[in-house]
Amino acid sequence: MVLNFKEPEGQIARWIQRLQEYDFEIQHRKGTSHGNADALSRRPCTESCKHCTNAEKKFGMEIDISVKVLTTISVDPWSSCEIQKARLEDPNIKPILEKKLYSADRPSWQEIAPESPATKRYWALWDSLHLKDGVLYRRWESDNGSSCGWQLIFPKSRIPEVLRETHDSASGGHFGVMKTLSKTRERFYWDRLRANVKRWCRECHACGARKGPKTRTKGRLQRYNVGAPFERMALDILEPFPVTTKGNRYVLVLMDYFTK
């Protein structure tokens, strides 16, 4: 039972704090009576199962009910035309893409100097950028050169769609920054990719509600020397509680360091 934990932490502690707001009674119910809750987790028995036959006779079950699909995942396809249109509308990618379409030679610095810092960073990657069927890709190699792959250069306007798939979706799994970054880099690339992934994971509401803050290092215990009552006091506020008839909701806890 969640209320029996001696030193609850993280999500368990938040559950206990939330449950303290309510006045409830816990009643035990046998596992055999939980058919409405765990029926979907039971493996279907064979037709010759005596237990299921007896249960059907006891409860008058005559209709065979089966659930094959619990949930479905729908992903909107991205066509090359849509990506190409969004890429041409991106002011950071458009200059590089146009120059790649007309010439394979790297443009001079004088041509790129008026462009944005992001465009200049794409220009620095010129040798690793390639066009495949009119779509701009980046050829990526691992640090040791053992593996390589093609990353789709993605426009800024479509970045949230990628991060929703690689982090928020059922296949994304709400993993941390490094796993989400690795999964995103397998197929996509854009300027400031790492910063965007880090910010997306940090601002994810579902991750913040479930994972909780990291444990901070506590300082060493210290002894405070006091020589008389009420010379040094410690206080804390305990909340939240149900509002009383007088409108009170909080409890102020005071402790005297001398008398304790």
Rg from alpha-carbon coordinates: 30 Å
Reading side by side through the largest sheet, how are the strands ordered? 1-2-3-4
Strand content: 5-15%
Helix tally?
11
How would you describe what is shown here?
By secondary structure, this protein is an alpha+beta fold. Among the domains are: 81-210, Endonuclease III, domain 1, CATH 1.10.340; 224-259, no CATH class. It contains 11 helices and 6 strands. The protein has helices at 10-19, 35-38, 50-59, 80-88, 94-102, 109-112, 117-124, 159-168, 177-185, 193-202, 205-211, and strands at residues 129-132, 135-141, 148-153, 188-189, 233-238, 251-256. The strands form 2 sheets. It has a 4-stranded mixed β-sheet with strand order 1-2-3-4. Strands 5-6 form a two-stranded antiparallel sheet. Helix 9 (177-185) packs across helix 10. The radius of gyration is 30 Å and the shape is flat. The relative contact order is 0.08. The model has no long low-confidence stretch (mean pLDDT 80).
Sum this structure up briefly.
Among the domains are: 81-210, Endonuclease III, domain 1; 224-259, no CATH class.
Task: Annotate the secondary structure layout.
Layout: H1 10-19, H2 35-38, H3 50-59, H4 80-88, H5 94-102, H6 109-112, H7 117-124, E1 129-132, E2 135-141, E3 148-153, H8 159-168, H9 177-185, E4 188-189, H10 193-202, H11 205-211, E5 233-238, E6 251-256
Parallel strand pairs: 3-4
Antiparallel strand pairs: 1-2, 2-3, 5-6
Helix pairs in contact: 9-10
